[in-house]
Amino acid sequence: MKLTLIAGTRERVAELVGQLSGAGDDVLIDGVVGSARELAAAIEGSGPDLVVLDPIRLGSIERIELERALAGAPALPLILLSPDRSPELLLWAMRVGVREVVNGGKDELRTAVERHVRRVAGTRTTVRQGRVIAFLPAKGGSGATFLATNTACALAARGKRVALIDLNLHLGDAALFVTEAQPTQTIADLSKDLARIDGTFLETGMMQARPNLWVLPAPESPEAALEIRPEAIEKIVAAARERFDFVILDVGRVLEASGLRGLDAAETIYLVVQLTLPFVHDAKRLKKMLRSLGYSRDKLRLVINRYERGTDVSSGDVERALGMRADLRVPNEFAPVAFSINHAVPVFEHQPRSAVSRAVLELADRYAPAVVPNKGLLSGLTLRFPKLTSAHEA
Ligand SMILES: Nc1ncnc2c1ncn2[C@@H]1O[C@H](COP(=O)(O)OP(=O)(O)O)[C@@H](O)[C@H]1O
Ligand SMILES: [Mg+2]
Fold this sequence. Notes:
Elements: E1 2-7, H1 10-19, E2 28-33, H2 36-46, E3 50-54, H3 60-71, E4 78-81, H4 87-96, E5 100-102, H5 108-121, E6 131-137, H6 144-157, E7 162-167, H7 174-178, H8 187-191, H9 199-205, E8 207-210, E9 213-216, H10 222-226, H11 230-243, E10 246-251, H12 257-265, E11 268-273, H13 277-292, E12 300-307, H14 315-322, E13 326-331, H15 334-343, H16 347-350, H17 355-365, H18 375-378
Helix pairs in contact: 2-3, 6-17, 9-11, 11-12
The chain binds adenosine-5'-diphosphate (ADP) and magnesium ion.
């Protein structure tokens, strides 16, 4: 793969090329002396797969130049070196489609580049790699947490080892959906010491909510959430993949660097919307942002939640507005969903025949086949996993 590296001086280019040696065998580095101004030409010239930019300064003019260059190449990942890591800069960077901001400390750039090389190459290590599925609400109240938690429970019920991780760091409530027990540790506690995070540490720190299902809840306080570093999230998700068959991410509405580390690891991101205009509006913005961050069309799937026929805004309207076909429609059924959430039981256990249960189980079917109960052994049990045919595949 081709990496274009732009830095202010010849010496700096050489230094960074040196830092990147060993980042991957097949990485060809094209060093350019320049700044944000040279970005567009460099992108157009060599058609890189990845760009590293180390600008001498990043004032408003450079920012505009960078933004323009990225607008012309929305899918191109760019790693920005910047000593400034203020929330203001990070937000700006994310908004204009910068893939990652690193401060250039020892190994930091190389680690970031290696991660992108792995992603681009799609190489797999030999360690067991659980499948990562993310649920992302277009707006608060879309039903992302309900779907994430119930999918996690369905996969666990089918004998898969599942980790449910709440990446809604500020106001996450996923644990409440699956257990009435009080968690002793949250993702903030486990994130404190980066060096300690591995599969064992993670699993022992998580709360087992039901057979085969472990939960890592969001922090109790917003202050604790602020302390969590994106690197910790990346390590937690990676460790979870080694220990679990499935890692289900409940990603918050506000996309931050931490949430993005989770989305990076996801094979599929279910974007959850409802059939009203504000959802469509926010989903459009979110989709655009995710695409500009380099996530492929294929990775993003549309879920229409609280689906009903004959609504003012139809699912066809939403599909057209977003340029995506609905991957799943989850019917609107207040009572079974409310009961499920209030009692922390999956909807398909309490109301197995409801349409919403069938939709949840259809989603689970895609990842793990239903366990058909043995008649003799479990006679009298009404657990069934019927197939829903109304929603179509993308
Ligand atoms: N399919 C559905 N039918 C009826 N009500 C639903 C459905 N999905 C979600 N809800 C309701 O929407 C509320 C918000 O769901 P939640 O999963 O917390 O959304 P999010 O995580 O996107 O903010 C829930 O309290 C629930 O009552
Ligand atoms: Mg939620």
